[in-house]
Design goal:
The structure is a homodimer of 346-residue chains. By secondary structure, the first copy, chain A, is α/β, with parallel strands linked by helices. Chain A has helices at residues 59-63, 139-151, 170-179, 192-200, 215-222, 236-245, 275-278, 295-307, 324-332; strands at residues 13-19, 32-38, 46-55, 84-91, 101-104, 111-115, 120-121, 159-162, 184-189, 206-209, 227-232, 246-254, 282-285, 315-319, 339-343. In chain A, the strands form 3 sheets. In chain A, strands 3, 4, 5, 6, 7, 14 and 15 form a 7-stranded mixed β-sheet that branches. The two termini of chain A are 36 Å apart. Chain A binds chain B through residues 62, 69-70, 235, 239-240, 248, 254-257, 260, 266-274, 276-287, 290, and chain B through 62, 69-70, 235, 239-240, 248, 254-257, 260, 266-274, 276-287, 290. Strand 13 of chain A pairs antiparallel with strand 13 (282-285) of chain B, so a sheet runs across the interface.
Chain lengths: 346, 346
């Protein structure tokens, strides 16, 4: 018997963030508009979710541009979307009941009426917050896992370099590389504090602040005999340095290019790309959506590491729904360590 | 019983080309020196070969620079090397007898004393000249075959774009793509005559002269729905245009970057490389040396196509050993159609 749709705890209206204008270059607060909208009672096959944590992610910057891509752009004057976790408050689908913890894709709002088929009930792991499903157990975690193992074909003994290594994806990449037998794990980040965390908390062998000097020189010091695998979250100078450092049959996993997301004209690509011929490098893009088949294996393996305390993750938590755009802007400037999330329930 | 080393038809001295100076930018004739040197009687395990055809290839430009690469640089003041075919005139190895047709790596000279283990006796195919082993049945042919099939993972129905398509590698790539079921084969070349040959002789569906206008625009006309596989012999603007044209999960085989070989400063890489993320492109370098295991299959399949008249190849023949450097310089400027060879025996 399907549950009767009811809205026990939901208010009549709630807030959501709209894209008010398409940013040129770096986004600014005026590109976003806070809107009060009716909370819609779920129809059959829908659930109403009270969001408790929202995800802000670098890929969202691309969706603010009106260009064809792997994912449609945000529409002007409508609520944006993105990863979110929360609790079902009313269900029109027999698979869900009030109180269920769910992960879904209608973030940037306080309450979301979600098609049940697009909501996932998530098991709780002791000591692991629900928001982990936005990070280490969610999209960034699977991106790291699939990028490193399926696309990058990590082998035991590989020397691995990760850029954006203190971020939600990078911090997991480095740790998985270590757990899977990499012989050297090097990371770059944008502050001394992050660099200390890479070698301290996350067990990287070496790390450097890319703002301290040329990436190529710093990488050569950290990995004097070169690298076998580069996980790129950054693009630009980092990618060029990695291409020089990669050895024969080296692999570069192209996951992000945050250094370029706010460029208004196209930045030159790596000047040394022709090295890929002589060294038979492989550069390959990764998108998490291609790797759903890996999810059960990923949840089992990464969930196990979390339970056993072998894998650490961090969150940078911004409090208050009204601060969601600011959290996103901070993320683009590297204001986070680990996963950037917005906390809605105080 | 090993044959007695004898030198029945060899002169006491013969000519060889030395690298006299390392070119800066485009090579010039003064970078090469013609030297008369003794012809050395083969010792045990060696054969003396009278070269009849010499190969000049774009990769040789890289060997003129004093930089670490997949193959050591040419040494100043010594005979250069490269692919050559000819006939054994004296043998110190029981596996070879005078008159044997061989392929070996000591080109740029009239007579070569070659370690027997570095010489290959080659079977003659009716109607196919010995020099085919420098081209369609040799290094360029195997490069095309392995690059397209092993690295590029060509699938039936793929839309394929080849740059430098009238060259020794490119002309074979396009034809193999067609024979293996590509649904569209597009090539670029640097003259109207070459373009006509691509669609006429070689059966490309479309071709354009890259000097006639922006590569991206011409490619979009030739392949309005995009491409699945790009075989890059050129680099530069071609690679950037191909990255834009490639569809999801497209592949770029990086084989050459002749547009950049004579640059004295590093040219910017493709400005759109970050598209590789969203489209999950794979860019991968190919070097023929990695693919020796494919050689028997390659010789059988390509040899069969040649016998059956299904695959065409051309040579641009430059007459006279003294013109070897000029043949090489012409090659760098696109003066060849198909394989560029130097004929020594008139």
């Amino acid at each position: 018997m399907a549950a009767e749709p009811t809205v026990p705890q939901a208010p009549a209206t709630a807030r959501e963030w709209h894209l008010a204008a398409r940013p040129r270059g770096w986004p600014v607060p005026a590109d976003f508009a806070l809107v009060e909208a009716p909370v819609r009672t779920p129809g059959p096959g829908e659930v109403l979710v009270r969001n408790t944590r929202l995800s802000v992610d670098p890929y969202m910057r691309g969706r603010m541009n009106d260009v064809k891509s792997y994912i449609p752009p945000f529409r002007l004057g409508e609520a944006m979307d993105g990863g979110a976790v929360g609790y079902v408050v009313a269900s029109g689908d027999e698979g869900f009941a009030p109180g269920d913890a769910v992960l879904h894709g209608l973030g940037w709002r306080e309450y979301a009426t979600v098609p049940a088929k697009h909501a996932v009930k998530v098991p709780r792991i002791e000591g692991v917050p629900l928001s982990a499903y936005l990070g280490v157990l969610g999209m960034p975690g699977l991106t790291a896992y699939a990028g490193l193992l399926a696309v990058g074909a990590l082998k035991e003994g590989d020397r691995v370099f990760v850029s954006g290594a203190a971020g939600a994806v990078g911090s997991i990449v480095g740790q998985i590389a270590r757990l899977k037998g990499a012989s050297l794990v090097v990371g770059s980040a944008g502050s001394a504090e992050k660099v200390a965390r890479l070698t301290g908390e996350y067990g990287f062998d070496a790390a450097f602040n890319y703002k301290d000097g040329p990436v190529g020189e710093q990488l050569a010091k950290a990995a004097p005999e070169g690298i076998d695998l580069y996980f790129d979250n950054v693009g630009g100078e980092h990618l060029e340095a990695a291409i020089s450092a990669l050895g024969v049959h080296g692999r570069a996993v192209l996951c992000g290019a945050i250094a370029q997301y706010n460029d208004t004209s196209a930045a030159p690509g790596p000047r040394n790309l022709a090295m890929a011929i002589g060294k038979r490098l492989r550069l390959e893009g990764v998108l998490v959506g291609d790797h759903d088949a890996l999810r059960p294996q990923f949840l089992a393996e990464v969930g196990g590491w979390l339970k056993d305390g072998k894998l650490r993750f961090e969150e940078t938590v911004v409090d208050g729904f009204e601060n969601t755009p600011q959290a996103f802007l901070d993320l683009l400037r590297g204001g986070n360590t680990g996963k950037m999330v917005v906390r809605l329930d105080g």
